[in-house]
Give the backbone structure.
Amino acid sequence: MEVILLEDVSKLGDMGELVDVKPGYARNYLIPQKLAVRASTGNKAQFEHQKKMIDSRKLKMRAAAVEAQGQLENVSITIAKKAGESDKLFGSVTSRDIAATLATEGIEVDHKKVMLEQAIRELGIYDVVLKLHAEIKATVRVWVVAL
């Protein structure tokens, strides 16, 4: 089934691309989440008309990501969690915790943009990558300390 992507979808394509996906993936995920529309002849014609607006929206999103990257260049945050004697945390620090701490600092970042391979489970200093745009990433230093 051919669909036109309305948003960037990781491992599938960028906004505005015409991609071929399995029908169940399109019907059950992409279309209900408003990430794509069916690529009918009417939608294709309408999409070609709206392509300029989408391109300008992409440029604005990229400019906002570059600005956010400048803000995040030297940011360091501290997260306090309960820890045991061997510096192991009771629980973990997740991408949601990092996004919430950044929000208290006045920097709004969606938790989905925080790229953690796995949750942080020990005290220490970590460099966490934030994927602000397809090509733009920023690194934030996270200090995990005991309560």
Q: What stands out?
A: The longest strand covers residues 137-146. The radius of gyration is 20 Å. Strands lie at 2-5, 18-20, 36-38, 76-81, 88-93, 114-115, 120-122, 124-131, 137-146.
